[in-house]
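Go through the following before class.
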Amino acid sequence: MTFLGLPTAPAGVGHLTGTQTFPAAARTAVADTQLRRNLGNATSTIRAKRASVVAELPDWGELRAAGAAIKDDVLAHLDRYLLQLEERVTAAGGQVHWARDAVEANRIVTELVVATGVDEVVKVKSMATQEIGLNEALAAAGIAAIETDLAELIVQLSDDRPSHILVPAIHRNRAEIREIFLRDMPGVDRDLTDDPAALAAAARTHLRHKLLTASVAVSGANFAVAETGTLAVVESEGNGRMCLTVPRTLITVMGLEKVVPTWRDLEVFLQLLPRSSTGERMNPYTSMWTGATEGQTFHLVLLDNGRTATLADPRGRAALRCIRCSACLNVCPVYERAGGHAYGSVYPGPIGAVLSPQLTGLGGDGASGGINASLPYASTLCGACLDACPVAIDIPSMLVHLRSRAVDAKREVHRLPSAERAAMTAAAWVMSDPARWTRALRAGRLGRLLRGRRALPPPLSAWAGARDVPQPPAETFRDWWAREGNTTP
């Protein structure tokens, strides 16, 4: 399948995969007690705020349904809406660029910045630019990208990686942030405390000069209205507003799926997003612009990077409804214990477990496909993510679907049956015959002779290493039934 002439298989996927599978990375993460404490405190606070503001709306269910319906309409007619958006942006003086993958998007943005003659740009927090690894691409061309979002700044100063969609430095506490500022932020007062207000003031002082003197800014976009060509960025600190208005050149990188059909549709998402993300009734700063405004030069880069491949899967495309609120991360018991870095991708948590494998592909033994094939298993399938999602993405069902795809992809590479497949085939054979099943149940009573979970033989010993193994009953139900004088099984 092709879409608007773009290939479905991404040639370059940026920061959508790590160097370890999720189980391997998670083992290290869960051993970090400070990390788990930081995550637990932060996610519980956000959950409580979200629950409070959501409860204020008697029509929250209807808003979720409306958001899901709008997004599904977008996905069904994405070609029409994107071309309409391009037409409106161009008519308003902007320039639209189409990028097949991360490599092409980075090339486009780098060439645009180089053409201005600057060696430094300021950035609004953007998942799309994180996804494609734009900062590294600009650095390779001798251009410094200055993150102006407070949490992104913390991550950048410490040469760290984001671990949350909304709060990239959620894995850091304020004492750690103070040490990062003292060590890595030029000109910081050595008497700086870990008071949040003091930390924010230090970051503001550091960034103010950068924001006022920058001539080029790079942003993402939360939404783009096809009807008018209007783009929208919502944020809480005001740095985004300055990035979008002060520099004379603005370059926006946006995933194809961020478009909404009409201005009125935006009303739905401006209610859903702040409540689901930060637990606020509305974002403190909502910036909108249409084309080139107030003498700016404006460029819009529309990014595929695997999105059309995701769109081609009827059972997986709903992941493209995502509005990047991170509500699913904040309720996920797996994310709360393992943290975002364990997922490898810039999209962690439940939505990352379904989105990243689809953007990179699941097949083969390649670095991205092979590693990300473990992500659909990074879940208990408890369903909390579905309950929290403001656009009703059925993440648990999608995880099961992707697990099936991962198994099929692995089977294509390894023609010999795996141990799991052999065990399931044997179980099916036993269960298909009543006599065999009865004998197997009776044989199961031998497990009473095994004392302790460590006594189980491999490979069952690995499964039992993290679980309490129940002791088999002294008598099977079928034997009890027969002993009581019943003649039918």
